[in-house]
Amino acid sequence: MMAETKYVNLNKVYTKRGDKGKTDLFGGSQASKASLKVNAYGAIDELGAFLGLVRFYSKEEDIKSLMLELEKKLLIVGGFLASDEKGQAMMKVKIEEEDIRFLEEKIDFYNAKLPDLFAFILPGDTEVSSYLHVARTVARRAERAMVALAETETLQENLLKYINRSSDLLFILARYDAEILQK
Q1: N or C: the chain end with fewer CB closer than 10 Å?
Q2: Which fold has domain 32-103+124-181?
């Protein structure tokens, strides 16, 4: 599935600047591929790939739909992280408080269906819950990378909140898949 973006031309895949350890940022500047910025948006990209696996393997339409929504929002998060100040100023959509409230509502909805938790969880009960647990750990790594980046530059206010809630939701969904859907 292709995400629709009207302001970025992605037809040229290689620039050869990557051969020297640089990558282009949206807005026109470049960054080292070892930078905090590239590390942060790389983790967001990886998270999106795992959400795609969950969406592919899940049999539940609600979870498939939720993963697609998360993937779309991660494009916004990644877009901000992969932009310089000029590029961020051109971004038309942002992560809003309502996006965070949406995640909180989903967390509360699915968590209400689960029994109380009194012990740590070992991932691996189902294929989908395993992918959800991997996605959760990638979301936590992305969050740590974003915190490190926020120590050197200003991030859009809701990005960290959104990734934090995303990892919470992925944890709850992993439990839901293993404990409710598989019974």
Answers
A1: C
A2: Hypothetical Protein Ta1238; Chain: A; (1.20.1200)
